[in-house]
Design a protein that fits this description.
GO terms for molecular function: GDP-mannose 4,6-dehydratase activity. The chain is α/β, with parallel strands linked by helices and 326 residues long. The protein contains 12 helices and 13 strands. The model has no long low-confidence stretch (mean pLDDT 97). Bound molecules: NADP nicotinamide-adenine-dinucleotide phosphate.
Length: 326
């Protein structure tokens, strides 16, 4: 039986990846950091009803000694580093913490593997935010990076450390440059979930308006459930490499919102308010990924449409809010 270690197992992708690996017969170990609210930290794993199937290991990405101990004890075949301070807007408020967790945290995992289990295969959760001020209309593995937030700068460090450990030590270390991907398990502060939760609240009469920042920004949105499969595929290849994972379709936040409002029969213009306080200090205007390499080498393509995903998310938020009322 193969053993996988997932950092960030309590997050959106961690939960879906754990579910996927369990169906593949893996023994799944999930790194969890200590929380004073331990009873809610595994909410996403509970949503998928897999919380009893994960072997919890106690550690933190900024504590190298904890990672060394965990790798020594678990002896994983595959390590997926999904843990991060992952919210771009918060990275301006906590730039150094973001650097420590999102940047150095990845280097800590790589070091722990190099010292204790160099044969383990490693996946790094890189991000399309690394393209930032885009240098090409459609971004591929060859497009130069231009990060535009402390988050993206930290991710770029982690990305290059992954490449460097592959080239320096021959480690099977791969990096997935994932474009935005969402689901009913997306954190509530991220724009798609903010929209689907907001629309559900307005529909149920719990709220009257939805406040957003820059709705002209364009993003390439896919579904987390499909994107985690690409992570696994990367680690099944003979050779480690870097891959863009995207849908190849880009849509404005405005049009994504319209999909959600019209799904429940509401007039978006009557409820949507723009709040300049919610704009980023430096914006990423457009992200538009070219997934051709992933299709050719991994046989992976995105299948779930933006409309299908937003409908699923609105339905999930309606159900959550109705349950909370009963
Ligand atoms: N979703 C996207 O569109 C997207 C796109 C590209 C890249 N990524 C990257 O992909 C990864 C997964 O994304 P996601 O959407 O699943 O993120 P997420 O829901 O925000 O999950 C982040 C995870 O990191 C954990 N974490 C935070 N600080 C930690 C620390 N110091 N030590 C250990 N764990 C820590 C969190 O644990 P707690 O539950 O305890 O907070 C949580 O499990 C992240 O690295 C993200 O930056 C995401």
């Amino acid at each position: 039986m193969k053993r996988a270690l997932i950092t960030g197992v309590t997050g959106q992708d961690g939960a879906y990846l754990a579910q996927f690996l369990l169906t593949k017969g893996y023994e799944v170990h999930g790194l969890m950091r200590r929380s004073s609210a331990a009873e809610v930290v595994d909410a996403k794993l509970r949503w998928l009803n897999i919380h009893n199937d994960i072997r919890e290991v106690d550690g933190n990405l900024i504590d190298l000694s904890s990672l060394i101990r965990i790798i020594r004890e678990v002896k994983p075949d595959e390590v997926y580093n999904l843990g991060a301070q992952s919210f771009v807007k918060a990275s301006w408020n906590q730039p150094l913490l973001t650097g420590q967790v999102t940047g150095l945290g990845a280097a800590n995992v790589l070091e722990a593997i190099r010292l204790e289990r160099p044969e383990a295969r490693f996946y790094q959760a890189s991000s399309s935010e690394m393209y930032g001020l885009i240098q090409e209309e459609m971004q591929s593995e060859k497009t130069p990076f231009y990060p535009r937030s402390p988050y993206a700068v930290a991710k770029l460090y982690a990305h290059w450390m992954t490449v460097n450990y592959r080239e320096s030590y021959g480690m099977h270390a791969s990096s997935g440059i994932l474009f935005n991907h969402e689901s009913p398990l997306r954190g509530i502060e991220f724009v798609t979930r903010k929209v689907t939760d907001g629309v559900a609240r307005i529909k149920l009469g719990l709220s009257k308006e939805l406040r957003l920042g820059n709705i002209d920004a364009k993003r390439d949105w896919g579904h987390s459930r499909e994107y985690v499969q690409a992570m696994w595929l990367m680690l099944q290849q003979d050779k480690p490499d870097d891959y863009v994972i995207a849908t190849g379709r880009t849509t404005t936040v405005r049009d994504m919102c319209r999909i959600a409002f019209s799904y429940v029969g509401l007039d978006m213009d009557a409820h949507l308010k723009i709040d300049s306080a919610l704009f980023r200090p430096a914006e990423v205007d457009v992200l538009f990924g070219n997934p051709a390499k992933a299709k050719e080498k991994l046989g992976w393509t995105a299948k779930i449409t933006l409309e299908e995903m937003i409908h699923e998310m609105v339905d999930a938020d309606l159900a959550r809010l109705r349950n909370a009322r009963t």
